[in-house]
């Protein structure tokens, strides 16, 4: 059976125009020589061009889709361009990816810590090099006892002391302190009797400047040397008891006194134990020290003098 070269008007549509071209190319001689190709019924010849048209249109649609995809690729690449100063890693972060969000959070935290560390380093550097930084201020307070030495033993005996000071820690090894010290010593009985009193005391008040050199600054237990000089005031007092105070107790009344103002020197050695603190970075130290104190008091030949004064005050306290 021959395949018609013209289609009925009812089946010729716009989409079948390419199919007519294919059908015209198939001549009756080709169909006759091909024993396999058979058209059993007139209705098959109506649907065959339609199927060929569908196949052709499907291929054209696929080709158009590939072409459109190829044309859209440059715009996609253009949209992924980075702004100046923007890192490529930050451009491909996805909000739905918990792992990338976690990594971004870690990077942000690390950057914040880095900037904070640099700021902190600057601040610490300022404290380190600032002579009057709060962290460099040093304090001390202590108390102890005194022992007389030298040629003044007939005129003074044992007593107690209180010491307080403040200054600056210029480094771990070196500090400079301004110290106040009060020493209260008794007088020997023979000297009191010669003065016509029933009791007596010798008070020494000093204001000195004393450098402190720590020999083992990084150790928990350390040894230091210190020494300095300044102003010393000494007063010698003779007392008698009189009755009575408001509660009925006898009171000591000074009957005779003399005093002097002069310069003096001190030199000593001490031991410190650094306390650990909460995080092992404590700055507080316990200390114990002994000093030799020389006071250039007036000679005994003068009305307000008993000769030079030499003492060894031993003090225990805290320093930070």
Q: What share of residues are in beta strands?
A: 35-45%
Contiguous low-pLDDT stretches (5 residues minimum) are 1-44, 73-97, 116-131
Overall structural domain count = 2
Shape: rod-shaped
Using the coordinates above, name the CATH class of the largest domain. Mainly Beta
Output the structural class. Answer: alpha+beta
Q: Whole-number radius of gyration?
A: 54 Å
Order of helices and strands: HHHHHEEEHEEEEE
Give an account of the 3D structure.
- It contains 6 helices and 8 strands.
- The protein is of the alpha+beta class and 320 residues long.
- Helices cover 30% and strands 38% of the residues.
- The chain folds into 2 domains: 14-69; 131-319, Porin (Beta Barrel).
- Residues 1-44, 73-97 and 116-131 have low confidence and may be disordered.
- Strands 1-2-3-4-5-6-7-8 form an 8-stranded antiparallel barrel.
- The N and C termini lie far apart (119 Å).
- It is rod-shaped.
What's this entry about, in short?
This protein has helices spanning 17-25, 28-33, 42-79, 88-91, 98-129, 189-194; strands at 137-148, 159-169, 174-186, 199-214, 221-242, 251-274, 285-295, 309-319.
Task: Provide the fold topology.
Layout: H1 17-25, H2 28-33, H3 42-79, H4 88-91, H5 98-129, E1 137-148, E2 159-169, E3 174-186, H6 189-194, E4 199-214, E5 221-242, E6 251-274, E7 285-295, E8 309-319
Antiparallel strand pairs: 1-2, 1-8, 2-3, 3-4, 4-5, 5-6, 6-7, 7-8
Helix pairs in contact: 1-3
What keywords describe this structure?
30% helix; 8-stranded antiparallel beta barrel; disordered N terminus; Porin; alpha+beta; 320 residues; 8 strands
